[in-house]
Amino acid sequence: MTHTPTPSQTVVAWDGTDPAKSALDWALARSADGGEFTLVHVLDHTVSSADYFVEESTVERAREVLTDEADRVGQQHAALTVHADLRSGDPIAELRGLSGADTLVVVGTHRRRGSTLRYEWSLGARLASSANGPVAIIPESDNMNRTGIVVGVDGSAASAAAVDFAAAEADRTGQELHAIHAWQEPLVWRDTSQPDARFLQSIESSHRRILDESLLAVSRRFPALHIRASLLRGAPQSALLDAAHGAALLVVGNHGLKGVTKLLLGSVSHSIVLNIQSPLVVIPAPPV
User: Fold this and answer.
1) How far is residue 25 CA from its own chain's centroid?
2) Do the beta carbons of residue 182 and residue 240 sit within 8 Å?
3) Per-residue pLDDT tens for 56-101?
4) 252: closest CA among 161, 129, 121?
């Protein structure tokens, strides 16, 4: 069986803001054992007109600040090989170009407050929809003591990749893996009639099989891993967000939407990004 490779490289989107600092802190904690680590600052050329240019002094100052931060990280984390990468252009395109199966791209985001409309086209949401590998979206720290890794399960290829990633993270960190599969009755029954109890039970049993079969491979791969499986009736977005409230990490697969997979996340992952409260990793479906 082919497993999702555990990323050996980490790329952190850096601009000195509080969300970027939270992203950096999370990525450093995850990479404590060493590896390749790159701080990337993209000077955004999409915010102005086509003839936009950055003054040379601005570029040099940005390079100096980025290099100083990379040097600081390298001095404090000797096990890491730290690089500084200053780029200019479209941040989404540049970060997407750095993403891949062996690379985790980490971006920060503001903690969600008020209407979610302002986050519809956030850097994290846009990047996670089109990246070539896993994307971690880290909200500003709330200083909560978080434990456990939650993963969404639905039986798809994207979900299988998410379960594989989450299991590897849980095993590596010695935490519990909480796998959640949420199901709902067919739409045709809602608000029209009461579904037959026996038929509902058969539907629930089929969803139980989906959950159990999705966890077979990781339970064999990580025999010491503590796995908690939850089959819940209700909207998957709500189930995952509720379970992830105090979790160290939430992992979801991204199906995308046919025809616009390079623009939008699937409905569940998109809703979770809009309401993010805990660190989140979005895993794309493997190429077919």
Assistant:
1) 16
2) yes
3) 788 899 999 999 999 999 999 999 999 999 999 999 999 999 999 9
4) 161
Q: Where in the chain is the domain with CATH 3.40.50.620?
A: 1-143, 146-278
Answer yes or no: are the C-beta atoms of 28 and 2 closer than 8 Å. Answer: no
CB contact burial 13-48 (16+ within 10 A = b; e otherwise): bbbeeebbbbbbebbbebbeeeebbbbbbbbbbeee
CATH architecture of the domain formed by 146-278: 3-Layer(aba) Sandwich (3.40)
| DSSP state for residue 100 in the 8-state scheme | B
Q: Which residues, 6+ apart, have CB-to-CB distance to 237 below 8 Å?
A: 267, 268, 271, 272, 275
At the topology level of CATH, where does 1-143 sit? Rossmann fold (3.40.50)
Ramachandran angles phi, psi of 185, nearest 5°: -65, 160
pTM equals: 0.88
Q: Which H/E stretch holds residue 254?
A: strand 249-254
